[in-house]
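Risk register update: the risk of archive-format incompatibility is retired. Evidence:
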Amino acid sequence: MCTDIDEEAIITGRNFGVFYNHKPGVRQYFENIKGISAHFIENQTFEWLHKFYKWLSETKHRKELSTTQPIFLDQNGNAVAAFDDEGQLILFLPVENIEGYTFVHPELLKNSETRKFIADIGIKQPSIKDQIYNIILPQYERGGEIDTDSHFMLFFTYYCKCPNGEINEFINLIKQCEFLTYYKHGDPHPHHGRASSMYLPIKELTDYFETKKDVRFIALDEYQNIVGREANEQLMSFLTKLGIKKEISIVEHEIDYASSGRDDLPWCRSTRGMSWKETVIEGCTEIMKYILDTKDERKSVVLWNSLLKIIERCCDKWRSLEGVLYGTHEYFYYSPQCKKFTSSTVKLLREQPWLQDINGKFVIPSKLHLDTISEIYDTNSDWADSLMSFLGISNKFSSEDDCNLTDVQREKIALADKLREYGIVDEADLAEFQEFRRRKEAEKKAEEQRNHDAHEGVKHFENKDSTEEFDHLFDDSDVSNEGSSSKSHGKRASCKTTTNVIKDIARRTKDKPSATKTAAVEDGEDVDEDEFMPSAVDYSKKIERAKEKSAAEIDRIAYFEELHNKATQLTQEGKYTVAWFNTLLEMESLNSNEANANSKEVSISFARVEREPGTERTLVLKYPNRYIPQFMEDLADIPLVLHMGNQKKTIAIEVANIKSYTLRVKMKNGADIEEVDLGSVTAATIDAKSPSFLWEELRKQFSELGLADDFNMKDNLCENIEFVFGPPGTGKTTYLARNVIIPMMKDNPECKVLVLTPTNKSADVLIKRIMELSGADSSYEDWLIRFGGTADEEIEQSPVFRDKIFDIRTLDKNVTVTTIARFPYDFFMPDNSRVFLRGINWDYIVIDEASMIPIANIIFPLYKKAPRKFIIAGDPFQIEPITSVELWKNENIYTMVELNSFVNPKTKPYQYKVDLLTTQYRSVPAIGGIFSNFAYGGVLKHYRVADSQRHLNVDCDLGVKALNIIKYPVSKYESIYRAKRLQHSSVYQVYSALFTFEYVCYLSRAISINNPGSLFRIGIIAPYRAQADMIDKLLASEHLPSEVDVQAGTIHGFQGDECDIIFAVFNTPPTISSSKEMFLNKRNIINVSISRARDYLFIIMPDDNTEGISNLRLVKRVERLIKSTDDWNEFLSSDLEDLMFSNPNYLENNAFSTGHQSVNVYGLPEKQYEVRTEDNAVDVQIHRDAPEASVSPTVLKTSKMHNNGVVDQEMPFTEEPGLKKKNLVVKERYPNAIEVKVSGAYVGRYFIVPYKGKLKKLNLKQFVSMFIPQMRSGKEKLIPVSVVSEDLIIYISKENYMKYKKELTASEGIELRKNIF
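Archived output:
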């Protein structure tokens, strides 16, 4: 038996065991040792314990062993450990007035060495967090009597100190705890409850709920006194996160049919159970009863105003209050069914006399008009029309003589007015109209039976009976009194003629309206004519053609109206039925055709063509004359025409790829442009056929699903859907490749996976990520397929790119990546047999970037296919789909399943699995924290640390932080400060565009000077295309350093992209409203804008004097979030103008803005920027050499340039013979040139010439690049210059000249260096 004992055996013990001793070569046995036990420690003296602790403290290993062993005595003399098995501290240093903890025995702390040992292993006083998590929260879990009074301050104190990443977890733990004090009306005694059951005691709510005695109001005054007024903002934030209600609740409750006593509830046959529930406004019943009992006009106004607030909060253009307040009867008949009914709150508000008229009488709402409702109600707010429409209040003025009419009389008058509008003036007319309708129906049935062709149908339509019918319908018999004036008679005669024309056109319309355009009507026979012998006009034929065109147009209008009314009704009744989808798909298809009614092609012209570096067949087309439609990526074999002076060259494009305002195109044959000088191309045009077939094919395939019109596609979604929720920078594409797709291929010998993306670009990105992650393993070539068009030459040249003739059936397993638009119609075609994508039995279907995909495109595969699983990846808080029909423009899969929270992801109709990607790898923590708190509840973790931020190395006087706010002025009346619209849609503001351009150029040059050889990417994002386009074209006019790559565009051009520096230019429309439809009030636009930045974020926004600035709720929220950090700075644009140009009003003084005249003749602009605007265009002329003030070139002076004018300074000097003429030439050419003394590489007197733009425009001679050393902040800075020695000129950029002007013009002169060292 071996009795060797080591320190680990002494402290922790050792079990009986066997080991082989190599030295004697025998097997030996360990003796069983209990080690230090709790019982042993409890029986030792304090003196022995102090010696024991001293021994333990001597080595690190002993300390580590002792942390989880019961070697300490607590306050009750029991042996305890310092930490539990999970490493949580369970033994603490004593604290006065705190119970519930295990504390170190006081006697142990009397020895200084023991105290040090206890501190060394990590025993300390309990923190607030410890108290909350270990003592307080378990009390609430156990239930029973709890003294909650002290808990609030502990919770609040920890909330104020809690790290952002832990706040939501903490709030979720305590929000269900009933620790908040509240009071009820008329009850002076305090009660305790959870936050979500209480309201904030603001006046609007206390006035409204005064009649409902059981409403809980939090004791706000008491808590404000506890925390102090200075902490009121944190208090309100704390209470809001806990769920305190600040607005009247819309609540849903179950209805007991038997005890309800209601006869308006529907009862449908059900083979299973049934239920009734409805949504109501909390407190509405009580305040209504009070109004009816007391006739209290004050409470009536309170209810009116409360309803306006509810509409503002819950309703929009397509959702009325009736769409919020409704009841549902759920039952089962072959499948789950649902029937809606009117909510009791709606009936109460519409049927009770709770509103006053102008006479002070309380009446039901439907008896009121706009001019008869009392003036005590607000009828001028943005939401008043919606409320009045909901209540049935007419928004028209009542006539004075019908005030005393009964309801029946009013209805009859309204009906008579409507009939009179259609020419029905008496009973005979009405009978004739009824007979017309009867005959019309009979005629329609007969026509269907006879199956006449179009010509026979027209002939039948023009028979005598039909003519008589239309005559009766539009009968306006001219029965005049003898006293009628000739003027009246003339007017009636004119109306008679008009009516006859209308009758004739109406007879030509179809029985059933149609959107089909009739064949073009021939304009007439070909006849000989010239200017001296014009042809005669046959008015009968001209009139005939006009009538035919009018009839066809009326048919189309009627058809569009039918569709729109149907879609609106279906949207109001409940979205997502098959009929809703089919109707909107038809509207989308028709609109696609309508957009190209005059031409079946979309024509786009580009101003510049460049070859993409590193490629042979890829061109980049820049500066388009119109928006590039997304469908360009779904087309193939597009002709591209290059215009070079009088010559043209047409080349074939195989595929296109859109990026913001550029189009990347891949030619079929790179040899097509081998001899073409792309610099000589003046324009490039594309005429592409409109892809209306995409919508039409989807509509056709949708209808072939064979589902009933009332089938709800949301309620019947499949259960096998998983979501991957990937916020910005969380590596969603990498996650799909590494964690989803590649494992599927490794784990399944037979597996077919289809990946659908919204664009070719996103498909290519996923393909390349799979290839990159595979590394040296090329086995992906056996299963990865890129189907469709790709603009990536690397992918195209790899084995993964497959064309249509590939036989996908030969692969046991594959991952096919393509765009979702191809799913309904595209196919592989091996051996001339079509293998449709929609026909293959896929095991998994993965849908990427789902937020960008229109809901119909994504619903179709969900119902068409039945794989093992659908995996839908994306972010509902980023880019929404692009559709043309407003009724579903923001609809995607996320709105359908109601996945609208990252912190608490809930879905319908099932609680689907949602994988949350919580670590963002893109941005430094300062920036990541902004979009994390803005859209994702503050739960995102940050992979990067603050020290990883790229340094700009620019001078400290620029003041650039990670987060920067620049505020610019906006005025409704002053030219460049005015916000304007192009064709009543896209918005721009000249000043913010010019400022952003100038500041980005200024910053770019500063970066270039201080970071030679590095590359910084700068992105400029604007919400409106007009603004982004203006900035983009301004940048195109400037030659920026090679160290920076600057791109400008809208959020769609930056989706999935990132830059080192982002400028988010939040320019506003002419009127800033609070509408949620305004771009700057859309969460996805703001979120994408602020989450593209890696290292630096600039927010360029209107200043605080801008009218309506408070309506920019989301922008102001971003501002507050930025200012809650430690790494931000704020600038006024005028201050930065002063920095750049030494003039805070430089842009205003050097820009001239006017409208387009009917005739414009452009000469050399007098201002640096001349801007001409009209409804559909903006022209900006840039003149870099425009004088800021005039200086006589004949006087030999140097001119020190100021932006508020030119100050001339006489600087006499001694000229060498032969230089006088040269100096005069320089002064004539550059009046603002400054003469300086030069030493170093060159010696003598030279002229410094500041310039903007490209130097080659000023100087065609050979120049030498040199440097001027200057000291700034104790460091030497090297200013790059270009020297033309023969002219004695030193060219320097204007930005650097303004920055170092004082040093450059000093009397001691400057030094020129040829090299940096």
